Please model this.
Amino acid sequence: MNINKRIKVAQFGLGPIGISSLRLLARKSWVEVVGGIDIRPELIGRSLGEITGDLSSFPEAKVYESFAALLASTEVDAIVHTAGSKAEQSFAQIRPMLEHGIAVVSSCEELLFPALRAPETTQEIDELCQTTGGRVLGTGVNPGYVLDVLPICLSGVCASVKGVYGERVVDASTRRQPLQKKVGSGMDPEEFRSLASQGKAGHAGFQESLALIANSLGWKIGMISETIDPVIADHDIETAYFSVETGQTAGLHQVVQAETAEGFWIHLDLKMYLDAENPHDMIRLDSSPSIEATIPGGVAGDLATVAALVNAIPSLLNAKPGVRLMTDLSVPHCRESLGMEPALEAESAL
Amino acid sequence: MNINKRIKVAQFGLGPIGISSLRLLARKSWVEVVGGIDIRPELIGRSLGEITGDLSSFPEAKVYESFAALLASTEVDAIVHTAGSKAEQSFAQIRPMLEHGIAVVSSCEELLFPALRAPETTQEIDELCQTTGGRVLGTGVNPGYVLDVLPICLSGVCASVKGVYGERVVDASTRRQPLQKKVGSGMDPEEFRSLASQGKAGHAGFQESLALIANSLGWKIGMISETIDPVIADHDIETAYFSVETGQTAGLHQVVQAETAEGFWIHLDLKMYLDAENPHDMIRLDSSPSIEATIPGGVAGDLATVAALVNAIPSLLNAKPGVRLMTDLSVPHCRESLGMEPALEAESAL
Model:
């Protein structure tokens, strides 16, 4: 990578996260934003400055209807993809980019560990990347950091690990409307259970977090068990978006667990509900030495997610082509500039 | 790297940390211990089983007087180096290994960021590695993890970082004799100050922790300021090794600080003293979003140090040849086996 050359980045998907991603990309000295991609007709052809409300940062870049249309107008090194939770659907959207050797960082939850639900496509896409030089990575905050990369990183100073416990409590009252809706706010508890049992409610990518941990530790886990239950409101709750009465759903409690034949175990516990007390992230390793780490308040949601995506771009460009995992990349970190990084200087990824 | 082939590892330096490293290496299924290296005549030629008290784990491996003697008897892929704190001296010991394309993981504190004190040798060694395929990395717990890699990793979910604060409080009463001695236990405070001002007391590698953080964030810092003061005993203290009277030195308080022209700042604070209350590690980022993480009790010392060294071996073998930093390597983690790691499978580092 030539450190004097900015990385040309485009944004695929212009929902709230995509807009937030563009605003952050505009502030990074090592990025040149070359365009956006969205299928909504009312956006196509408009300038990114207009859409983001930040005219000075995007003098020329605009919205294209497809990756092909973008590529016909500009060069691009990397794409931030924020347009879905399912591995197969995301791979279908990303494939044309990989065919052109682009590096794609995606918020798609299942892409954190795509071999779990799409093993054949993952292998096929990985083989495609070996011939084109393309790279794809799924990341974010959860999945992507607090309940997977963080416990993995903590294990780096352990001689041995027997078990991994992680818990995250999110006060959904402080979050935007889509998250309050996603956790079932105001829903009849039986209706929530019914939707959850059909895979239509709950936090996506939770099993992938567990699979990433197991993979990094070298554990061969069997079945992953997952439960999703409503948290029942014990008092009436009024948010900016929802009115929840006592007895209705105030949020969700989701657990994934697995163990190996040798007795190694992983247990991840997520609660996201309105008026949650003591929001936090906590990791406890049953390890030698034992380690417990707590983040009071927890890692905040949307901005941190966007940061995780943007911060991963240079690391992904420095990684080997293929379907990459967070554990394949260098230690995640924020970057003010790329100028002082010896590993980047030594590279010729671009 | 052929995942069915174990990594051939030798241990350079057979002090307490070196012995502990051998014991851990023996428990890793992906390691084949091929020998030890130490200059002490009474050790040379003895079996590692005898020296470690673990006869079954080392049926044949023994102690050699030098790397050359080891190499005359066996193949070796990687060496764990635990024999000094100074970059120049360690580079001199490690150079012959790098000439043979070996990967060396070292506990040498200054090698965490060797360009700080030995910029010319670092460049020369890096160039050597480009021709031989050798790799060298400095790591550990402190420096190497709690006050550098951990805050760096936490910045991975930050859109921007203005400042990094880290503190570590170690209860030296719980640690072995060399650490109690190193922190000045029982010394006259003025004598401790005098030794510290001559660079003969204090925690090594602290400025390197700061430099690694600044480098990863892309901050161009100026002068690093460092202070080392005695912690004065406010009561009589009796440990297994020292009797410290009120008014004598009970330990050390060391601080490194730096800032950039733009006002970005790093402040790291280390206290290691007898009878310390509330030992812990704590990181607080002045960032967007802000993040604070606490490890109650702190990451324990010697075993964690050895774990950090051993855990880094496969990551270093997967990295590009050269003088490597922890931030060049994949996210640190413990490994039960290497079998499930796609990145390792795809590699041909060996």
